[in-house]
Write a structure and sequence with these properties.
The protein is α+β, with helices and mostly antiparallel strands and 381 residues long. The chain has 2 domains: 205 residues, no CATH class; 129 residues, Heat Shock Protein 90. Helices cover 57% and strands 10% of the residues.
């Protein structure tokens, strides 16, 4: 088996608590100027005077010749005030009870709520306000018929305006739900990626500690050099532990450190050829510790000696990095932690959007790693 694990990858991903769902709409009493949470100040300033002037005239309530200029100004100020109080009162009452149900799940309850607000507030208030105006100003055109026509027009306006608000609320709720969903998805991805990383470090440490134990038992003269190289490698692991991506140049430098560990363990049994120039290496990003993992697995699952070394070739092909070597399966069973290419593939999927791939071709084992450009304009596809 080459660069792979025969065991099914099993892992426990930390559970991310769902984001607390806030009130469906803002607190109706949160702001005196905008209780709906929607910036409707400009619309109110424009529409309220229009409604206050248009509806009484359409209903035939005002006989202009019967009023002086001051009387007309007072009349329309009264109607504009009625329009404002009607708008404000309906909105506050509607918002006070709107959280008890949802329009999409219980639409008829919302309709009953609207009808209740109209019957218990809109009609009684506007009827009383218009009757009081007719009594105080003694306009000859003011009659119960014209008042009734005005109230009907006001009810129609309230229904329309409420529908507009409800549409805005649904759009805001959809946007808020989408933002919460994206945030929760991102947190889940980060949690899963962290779980995968937590498997990698013990896996690499396990292999190197076994090798160190073997060197110490044999009294190898370069055991201390192995410890120094291992410490340098783990300083890099600690430095990049919280990073999703690192420069390819840094990863190649880490590969050199791991190669020195392998050289101490196996003398000249392994050669690595890197066909990536410095300028190209600085242009690409890669998940951390990917190359050392592939080197470790190649060493673990393939036979090689100083007389017949295993040759590994690393080549940059567009926005892909390929790692290839001759397949030489070991004859003896190799102990494994069960963390291998499946882990690596999932980490690449989470960080680059594309999983790492591997295949056997002509007796060679080839792993293809997608890269991400440092300028952020390229995501490997």
């Amino acid at each position: 088996m080459s660069l792979n694990s025969s065991q099914q990858l099993q892992r426990r991903v930390p559970r991310v608590r769902p984001l607390a769902r806030c009130c469906r709409y803002p607190d109706p009493m949160a702001s005196a100027s905008s209780p709906s949470g929607v910036d409707d100040t400009a619309v109110r300033l424009m529409v309220t005077p229009i409604v206050g002037v248009a509806i009484p005239n359409l209903a035939g309530m005002v006989h202009h010749a019967s009023h002086s200029i001051v009387g007309l100004l007072a009349t329309y100020a009264w109607f504009i005030g009625v329009a404002y109080v009607t708008w404000e009162g309906n909105l506050r009452l509607y918002l006070r009870f709107q959280d008890r149900t949802a329009w999409l799940t219980q639409p008829w309850h919302r309709v009953r709520l609207l009808i209740g607000v109209i019957c218990l507030f809109t009609i009684p208030f506007t009827t009383s306000a218009l009757w009081l105006w007719a009594t105080l100003f003694a306009d000859p055109s003011a009659s119960w018929r014209s008042i009734g026509m005005a109230v009907i027009a006001i009810v129609a306006a309230v229904t329309f305006i409420t529908h507009v608000y409800e549409t805005l609320f649904l759009v805001k709720e959809w946007q808020s739900d989408r933002a919460r969903g994206e945030r929760l998805q991102q947190e889940n991805v980060e949690a899963e990626l962290q779980a995968l990383k937590s498997e990698v470090n013990p896996h690499t440490l396990f292999n190197n500690l076994n090798a160190l134990s073997h060197l110490v038992e044999q009294g190898h003269p370069r055991a201390s050099a192995f410890v120094a190289a291992l410490a340098a490698s783990y300083r890099y692991l600690l430095k990049t532990g919280s990073k999703r991506l690192v420069p390819l140049a840094d990863e190649l430098a880490l590969l050199d450190q791991f190669l020195s560990l392998v050289t101490i363990r196996y003398a000249d049994g392994l050669t690595v050829t890197v066909q990536v120039d410095a300028s190209s290496a600085s242009r690409w990003l890669i998940p951390p510790v990917a190359l050392p993992e592939l080197l470790e697995n190649a060493v673990k699952h393939n036979d090689f000696t100083s007389d017949n070394p295993l040759q590994i070739e690393i080549r940059l092909e567009g926005d892909r990095l390929t790692i290839a070597h001759e397949k030489r399966p070991r004859q003896t069973t190799v102990s494994s932690t069960g963390v291998g290419l499946e882990n690596l593939a999932q980490r690449f999927r989470l960080t680059t959007g594309v999983a790492a791939r591997w295949a056997e071709t002509g007796g060679r084992f080839v792993v293809t790693l997608p890269l991400v450009a440092t300028d952020g304009v390229n995501i490997a596809k």
